[in-house]
Specification:
five-stranded mixed barrel, alpha+beta
């Protein structure tokens, strides 16, 4: 079982590359995020590998970091999400946007990925909503993904910003969005509604 490859990168294509390790070229399938982060030329690259053994092939999927590999493993637990679709999702949505889309039930955000239709997007939301807490890019003390609860005591906006920060969003990008949502709700709305609506905007 191959868990990691360290070697020279060559023959980079849209969804794959070749890693030359001691004169042996390994074909590695990867997201555009990983492929764009690989060094060019004679610089050595280290790629984490998930080995998938099928009846007709042994496939290597590469990741630039452990976080992306963790998300790949989680996504492929959903029925209908194979390795190819998981890579398409990871190519389209970084971890913070992926968490936001799942937490807010934003199916349209997920369907931006090739191979993900409305039905599959709904299944991803349903099956992973309670599993995102603690995944890279999300989870924070005082934040609960389903039925958001925040332990802050600085008012609704402060609590909303705290929750969004826990989901991986910078305060500078989240604050104007929360302000717009609260203005649209005439300053009212429950905290979980404000967070959900803010996540929809941030995930666009």
């Amino acid at each position: 079982m191959i868990a990691q490859l360290t070697g020279l990168v060559g023959q980079v294509e849209a969804d794959r590359c070749v890693i030359d390790v001691g004169g042996v070229g390994y074909l590695v399938l990867a997201s555009t995020r990983t492929l764009s982060a690989l060094p060019q030329g004679a610089e050595v690259a280290r790629v984490l590998i998930e080995t998938v053994v099928r009846e007709d092939a042994i496939l290597l999927y590469g990741f630039i970091d452990a976080a992306e590999r963790s998300w790949f493993r989680l996504l492929t637990t959903v029925q209908g999400v194979g390795a190819k679709v998981a890579l398409a999702i990871l190519s389209t949505l970084p971890a913070s946007e992926l968490i936001a889309a799942i937490a807010s039930g934003d199916k349209s955000g997920l369907t931006r990925a090739a191979g993900v239709g409305a039905r599959l997007a709904q299944r991803i939301v349903t099956e992973l909503r309670d599993k995102c807490d603690g995944m890279p890019g999300g989870g924070a003390p005082g934040v609960v993904m389903a039925g958001v609860k925040v332990t802050g005591n600085g008012g609704v906006m402060s609590d909303a910003l705290l929750a969004l920060s826990g989901l991986g969003f910078r305060r500078a990008e989240a604050q104007p969005v929360v302000a717009r949502v609260m203005d649209r709700l005439d300053g009212g709305g429950d905290l979980d509604v404000i967070i959900r609506e803010s996540l929809k905007e941030l995930a666009r």
